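Sorry to interrupt, but I need a hand with the structure work. I would like you to pick a protein and set down its sequence and fold. Please put the record directly below this note.
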Amino acid sequence: MKFLRYFIVATLAIILLLFTVSYIVWLGYPKTYLNIYVLDKTVPDFKYEKHRALFWVLNNARIVKSNGKSYKIGHDYYGFHPLRSISDYQYDIKRILLEQIDSISDVYDVAYYADTRGVYFNEWFKGFRRSGENSVIEGGLNQNDYLLLKTMKEKGKLIIGEFGILGTPTSDLISYKTELLFNIHATGWWVRYFHSLDSNNVEIPYHVIERYKAEHGGKWPFTGEGIILTNNSTTLVLEPKKHLNVNYPKLVTDENFRATFQLPSNIDFTGWFEIIVPGDSVSVVANFQLNLTSEGDSLVKSYGLSSIFPAIVVDHPGRIRTCYFAGDFASNSLPSLFTQMANSRKWLKGITSNKQKLFFQNYYFPFMEKLLKTYAIEIKNNKLNP
């Protein structure tokens, strides 16, 4: 018994030592100074999942504000801010005003629009029916959000948009004007893999199941894993073996681009993504791919779709100033414990097999770290050599 107690104490001491050494090494990382304007209107709780991965990268890579302070996940963003205690249903909304656009676009180096789906009445005020009162409290891009993005682009600054900012509740006009900034067109189709297609899976949007039932005699016959493709009028369900040779969508990256950013050639992607059409003057540097059977291929083609969809669209691969992620890249539930530790991504790899977290570790992190640090160097060089 005494030996076991000594063993536990020694093990805890070793773990504490490793954490301490890793933290000290992390403190030695050089700081990168960038002012980043983050917009996230989909924050129904204190998990901050829709911009969590971005802040994880910022804090772990020591990308800090111009004053040298670290980014705080619950503070340093515009959008919906829940207030404690959440049981009181109190919230604040941090918006940009029209008269602030010019000055803010001068202060910030980067604009990152993470999510604007918003927070809805029946999500915030718990207890209402899932299909009931569903008006948005705060959501969608507004005119000022668009104007800031446009102004920053005109000033040659880096703008990044992500899946969902062009859809409901963003108005058609604002969506169209924002599409022009990124030189893309959103078709309205959304796609996602689900580990379970059972109707009790709360991750499947209620209206998706109801729409399918309306089209198929009130039936939803699915229980296993699969991929859903949906728009405002149609829902398609792809099942393993019948429609899919490989159950997961793959994110496949251009060879030259992945060499620059040290990315894998392909990786499983299990989050939401949208089907977009790129313009002529932009570059598609990564695609989502579905590995379909002949039956699956015939099914998607009958709706005017294919098995390959643009995933990352940039203006210039060698000098990125506009970047659009057609997938839900920054959404994650990563623990914050490891952010202030050296080599923490390796630690995470050892404790998880979750595909969403593996995507963050192997793809999103190296891409965002390289993109932001390269851009920061360009800014610094421009200031030294005006």
